[in-house]
C-alpha cells in the first residue's frame, strides 16, 4: 500500500501544476498521505486541499499506481454539492515517488466535531444532516 508521508523534512513549499502549498499549512495526515492547504499560484485567493501521496519503495509500485488511479477515477466521476469537489491529479516532475490529488477545501468542522461538540444533536439538525449525507451517497 501507499506509505504515510511523514518524510517531508526537506519540504518547505512546492508548486505542482499551478498549485502551491507550504509545509506549515498541514491540514492533516491519513493512513496513506498528507494533506496541505494550498492555493492556485495565479490566484492565491482560490484555496484547495492538496493530498500528497508518497509511494512506499518496499511495496509494489505498480499496485500503488493502480490504487491512486482508482481513487482518481472515482473522484473524477463524483459530482454533487454534498461531496467534496475533485479538481486535479498531478505528477511531481522532480520526484517520481509523489502523486497529488487536488480537492475543494472545506473550511469548518468535520462530521465528528459536529456530532460530539455538544451533548448530542437536535432531532431536526440530525434529520437535515442525515438527508445531506444520503443525497451525497446517491451519486456513488
Summarize the structure in words.
It is a single chain. This protein has helices at 61-77, 111-116, 123-137, and strands at 13-16, 19-29, 33-40, 43-54, 86-91, 98-104. The chain has a six-stranded antiparallel β-sheet with strand order 1-2-3-4-6-5, with helices on one face. It is of the alpha+beta class. The longest helix is centred in the middle third of the chain and has 17 residues, at 61-77.
Question: SSE layout and pairings?
Answer:
Layout: E1 13-16, E2 19-29, E3 33-40, E4 43-54, H1 61-77, E5 86-91, E6 98-104, H2 111-116, H3 123-137
Antiparallel strand pairs: 1-2, 2-3, 3-4, 4-6, 5-6
Provide a concise account of the structure shown.
The protein has 140 residues and is an alpha+beta fold.
CATH topology (fold) name of the largest domain: Phosphorylase Kinase, domain 1
- The CATH superfamily of the largest domain is Phosphorylase Kinase, domain 1
Average pLDDT for all residues: 84
**Main CATH class of the largest domain:** Alpha Beta
Largest sheet: 6 strands, antiparallel
Low-confidence parts, pLDDT < 50 over ≥5 residues? 1-7
Give the overall form. Answer: globular
User: What is the level-2 CATH architecture name of the largest domain?
Assistant: 2-Layer Sandwich
Strand order of the largest sheet: 1-2-3-4-6-5
Q: What keywords describe this structure?
A:
single chain, 140 residues, alpha+beta, Phosphorylase Kinase, domain 1, 2 domains, 6-stranded antiparallel sheet, 3 helices, 34% strand, globular, disordered N terminus
